[in-house]
Design a protein that fits this description.
eight-stranded parallel β-sheet; RNA-binding; globular
RNA sequence: GGGGUCGUAGUUAAGUUGGUUAUAACGCCGGCCUGUCACGCCGGAGGCCGAGGGUUCGAGUCCCUUCGACCCCG
């Protein structure tokens, strides 16, 4: 994997290009989440058509079903799901957090009780790498321990140290150097622990660095504070990935702190639950106020949904439980996110990201955003 | 004409031997969603218990009348 910086804004944001065995990614980039080998509700062709250059898969979920060996035998994840571009796989570290009640942790690794059938499965730093290599991901993530919020200092400290030990084991066990491996910074919401975690992970050395354990329920100010404290410590010549974040506002802030990669279920999950992002107000499409609204969802959006359908129709589809509601809503939300990233990259390239960001938040506050 | 069953929220239903503010589901209205256990989660509004009369300290529950729906027998 190669990372080339193309332009840098005086305020610290940068645009660049990541080259992987399956193609390039222009950064800053938003990566749609396709946990089980599918971006929910869309075909890969649609995802690509929306401007996505790289998507996510998940180690835990694909290991459990259909199994990484099967996927390897069938030609790897790219071929299995018919996604020709780059894929980043998360390690299962997030499931240590999200499936809290279904797992037990030890220094060796984590034992999950399958959420599907209750069977027990052991995931270690080594097996997490092995699974991701079998999947054929372009970027693998180290197995980390993602802790919930709130968490005490002692717990955050213990988790960041274990994450560092696991990171070393991940690096040691990797076999295929053509697949990039990213280390993950933890440390809870304690800036000094974040710094310590960064030092530990940096000293091991990875192809890219991720900030994990943020946006797990903490107040936004804490998230931004820890982001600001940690991002500058990450080497400028490696991609920086803010895991699991976030809202459009979070992306704009993340970029301002020099983040290159984001992923989040928000656009896709919200779409399926009827929350649609626009350049104006957020639209809860099931609300009765849209029942007779013949206008497009977002008149400034260039997506298939906004070009062809009214809010009234989208509401009708949603309340009727039509599958098409999820398809059209996901198309829009993802396009909204991906177009935001396009505009961000353009602004950085033209050296006007500071103005872009200021205008972005000014318009949000005024609620009069147009373009 | 005779007999029976049943009328409870917008809908379908539950309501124990009569006993505090009459339940649920769906629907309706609103909110939430941050490395996906997620077409999900949370909350809210909404009932002269068909109508009238009676028994009782107290009736959605018991009795009478009446209206309506359905079924059976002539």
């Amino acid at each position: 994997m190669e990372f080339r910086r193309i332009a840098e804004d005086p305020c610290g944001s940068r645009t660049g290009r990541i080259e992987t065995p399956h193609g390039e990614v222009e950064t800053p980039a938003f990566m749609p989440v396709g946990t089980q080998g599918a971006v929910k509700a869309l075909t890969p062709e649609q995802v690509q058509g929306l401007g996505a250059q790289i998507i996510l898969g998940n180690t835990y979920h694909l290991y459990l079903r259909p199994g990484h060996r099967l996927i390897r035998e069938l030609g790897g994840l790219h071929r299995f799901m018919n996604w020709p571009g780059p894929i980043l796989t998360d390690s299962g570290g997030f499931q240590i957090y999200s499936l809290g009640a279904l797992r037990t942790l030890s220094e060796e690794g984590v034992t999950f009780q399958s959420h599907i059938d209750g069977s027990r499965h052991f995931l270690s730093p080594e097996s997490a790498v092995e699974i991701q290599e079998a999947l054929g991901s372009d970027i693998l993530m180290c197995l980390d321990e993602c802790i919930p919020y709130p968490a005490g200092r002692a717990e955050a400290e213990r988790a960041l140290e274990r994450t560092a030990r696991w990171a070393a084991r991940c690096k040691k066990s990797r076999r295929n150097p053509s697949q990039a491996l990213f280390g993950i910074i933890q440390g809870g919401v304690y800036p000094d622990l974040r710094r310590r975690s960064a030092e530990a992970i940096l000293s091991i050395g990875f192809d890219g660095y991720a900030l994990g354990g943020l946006s797990v329920g903490e107040p936004k100010e804490l998230m931004l504070e820890n982001l600001a404290a940690t991002a500058p410590l990450l080497p400028a010549d490696r991609p920086r990935y803010l895991m699991g974040v976030g809202t459009p506002e979070d992306l704009v802030e993340g970029v301002a702190h020099g983040i290159d990669l984001f992923d989040c279920v928000m656009p896709t999950r919200s779409a399926r639950n009827g929350l649609l992002f626009t350049n104006g107000e957020k639209v809860v499409i099931k609300n009765a106020r849209y029942r007779e609204d013949g206008s497009p969802l977002d008149s400034t959006c260039d997506c298939y949904t906004c070009r062809n359908y009214s809010r009234a129709y989208l509401r009708h589809l949603y309340v009727s439980g039509e599958i098409l509601a999820m398809v059209l809503n996901t198309i829009h939300n993802l396009r909204h996110y991906l177009r935001l990233m396009e505009r961000i990259r353009e602004a950085i390239r033209e050296g006007r990201y500071r103005e872009f960001r200021e205008r972005f938040f000014r318009e949000r506050q005024a609620g009069t955003a147009d373009e």
